[in-house]
Amino acid sequence: MPDPTELLMAWETGLSTRAPRRALLLHALASPAAMVEDLLDVPVGARDADLFGLRGSLFGERMPVRATCPHCGEEIEFDFAVDQVPQRATRGPEALRVESGEWTVRSRVPTVGDLLAAADAGSGEEARRIMLSRCVVSASRGGTPVAAEDLPPHVQEQIAEAAAAADPCADIRLKLTCPECGRQATAELDIASYLWAEVDAWARGTLLDVHLLAVAYGWTEPEILALSPTRRRHYLELSGHA
Ligand SMILES: [Zn+2]
User: Do the beta carbons of residue 100 and residue 158 sit within 8 Å?
Assistant: First the structure.
């Protein structure tokens, strides 16, 4: 588990970057022994499983989630438990095979590196094209090789479905029953942005604590960060701030 100084450094770096790179910074905290190049080759769902683990150790196993009912507009609040996360993918990255009529495609599940490459695209259409061309290993029609971008939409859809089935953690959707209207709703849980928002709130609160205690006692930032949360809270109370 990262200490407060490491978490603050990742937060500070992440402030000036965009979502996929923030997720990479968080993943590096969850896998301190791994090189960045290795993290780029991790399937997105396996990364998300690691981020759920990091979330559990930083902020606990229960995650409050909010969703809006698409039928009546009611705000639904519920707790998601980190241990409800599906098992991470066990199949290798080259394992996917899609056959549809005369089309045969071998592909792999998207990795963190694929997401980063697609994030630099100018449009959603371009991002999809980049993901497809990176993840399709080979494609043929009636035995004749074809380029990934020439695959028809229904085959592209099947490739995406095969990847989702092989890497279930990559796209977590929660089925809910609306307490107001009783109908079914679906909520997406994007752990990377969820955890980033929590780290952001934690970092801003921590800097405020450092500021208040530095003013009250003249301590330095490393001294204050070295205090346990319990001691920090007590000193904040004693100095009239909590
Ligand atoms: Zn409803």
Answer: yes
For the beta carbon of residue 3, count every other beta carbon within 10 angstroms: 9
Give the pLDDT confidence of 64-76 residue by residue, as tens digits.
Answer: 998 899 999 999 9
Indicate the pTM of the whole model.
Answer: 0.88
What b/e sequence results for 80-94 when a residue is b if at least 16 CB atoms lie within 10 Å of its CB, and e otherwise?
bebeebeebbeeebe
Instruction: Measure 78 CA to ligand 1 centroid, in angstroms.
Output: 14
Report d(CA 31, CA 39) in Å as an integer: 9
Burial of residue 240 (number of CB atoms within 10 Å: 0-12, 13-18, 19+):
exposed
How far is the centre of ligand 1, averaged over its atoms, from the C-alpha of 185 (Å)? 8
Q: Which residue has the tokens 């085959």?
A: 155
CB 70 within 8 A of CB 181: no
Mean pLDDT score across all residues of the chain: 91
Q: What's CA 42's distance to the chain center, in Å?
A: 12
Question: What's the gap in Å between 80 CA and the centre of ligand 1?
Answer: 19
Instruction: Supply 215's token pair.
Output: 């003013």
